[in-house]
Specification:
78 residues; 0% strand; mainly alpha
Length: 78
């Protein structure tokens, strides 16, 4: 398992300008962005044993991150 944080800038490098614009002008997108980063940081802390968690909780956080990423990808594609 790698312990690489899945930052949105790395996930969507071609959409950096659009992400920045949406964060400033679309409250729903801004909320998704912040929630994604909160979950992503929690996963990264758990993976690096800064804040260990059990396998079930890790799996649930990863599902949540994927769901948020999918929502963000749909908005970026629109």
């Amino acid at each position: 398992m790698t312990h690489v944080p899945h930052e949105l800038a790395e996930e969507f490098p071609e959409s950096l300008a659009r992400i920045s614009e949406l964060k400033q002008h679309d409250p729903h997108f801004g909320h998704l962005f912040e929630e994604y980063h909160a979950v992503n940081r929690a996963i990264h802390r758990a993976e690096t044993d800064l804040e260990p968690t059990d396998d079930f909780h890790m799996q649930e956080m990863r599902k949540q991150r994927l769901n948020l990423k999918d929502q963000i990808a749909r908005i970026l594609a629109a």
